[in-house]
């Protein structure tokens, strides 16, 4: 097995583990708070400073989108039947990564507006 074949495995599995772990921790803490098993002094720790999914998801989503778009650009370029210069490949990958960032911005803006509306509804 070549080192180039091992690197994606070393990146993908820890990333999946981290996302699943953060999601499960968030769900567990949310259920504990909703059932009232903690007092009011501790609730702010879970939402503001704790290991909540809101803390990790935006960053994970952003870099996930960037990597997917850059990877898709590379796959498409490699599938083309003719040779493309390295500079063009890099440019296309950067454009695709930028498109991933723009998509992330749209998603994050929508989520921020929804959270703001939800917060105003609770007040």
Low-confidence stretches: 49-53
Main beta sheet strand tally, sense and closure: none
Integer tally of domains: 2
Query: How many helices in DSSP terms?
Result: 4
Radius of gyration, in Å, reads 20 Å
> What spatial form do the alpha-carbon principal axes imply?
elongated
Q: What is the rounded distance between the termini?
A: 58 Å
Mean pLDDT: 78
Structural class, judged by helices and strands? mainly alpha
The total strand number stands at 0
Percent range for β-strand residues? under 5%
Share of helix, binned: over 70%
**What is the N-to-C succession of helices and strands?**
HHHH
Can you walk me through this structure?
The chain has 123 residues and is an all-alpha fold. The protein contains 4 helices and no strands. The N and C termini lie far apart (58 Å).
């Amino acid at each position: 097995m070549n080192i180039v074949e091992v690197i994606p495995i070393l990146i993908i599995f820890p990333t999946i583990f981290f996302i699943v772990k953060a999601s499960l921790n968030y769900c567990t803490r949310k259920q504990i708070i909703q059932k009232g098993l903690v007092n009011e002094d501790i609730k702010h720790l879970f939402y503001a400073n704790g290991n909540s999914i809101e803390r990790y998801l935006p960053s994970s989503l952003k870099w996930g989108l960037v990597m997917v778009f850059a990877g898709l650009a590379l796959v498409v370029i490699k599938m083309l039947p003719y040779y493309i210069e390295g500079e063009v490949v890099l440019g296309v990958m950067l454009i695709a990564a930028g498109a991933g960032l723009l998509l992330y911005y749209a998603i994050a803006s929508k989520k921020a507006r929804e959270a703001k509306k939800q917060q105003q509804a609770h007040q």
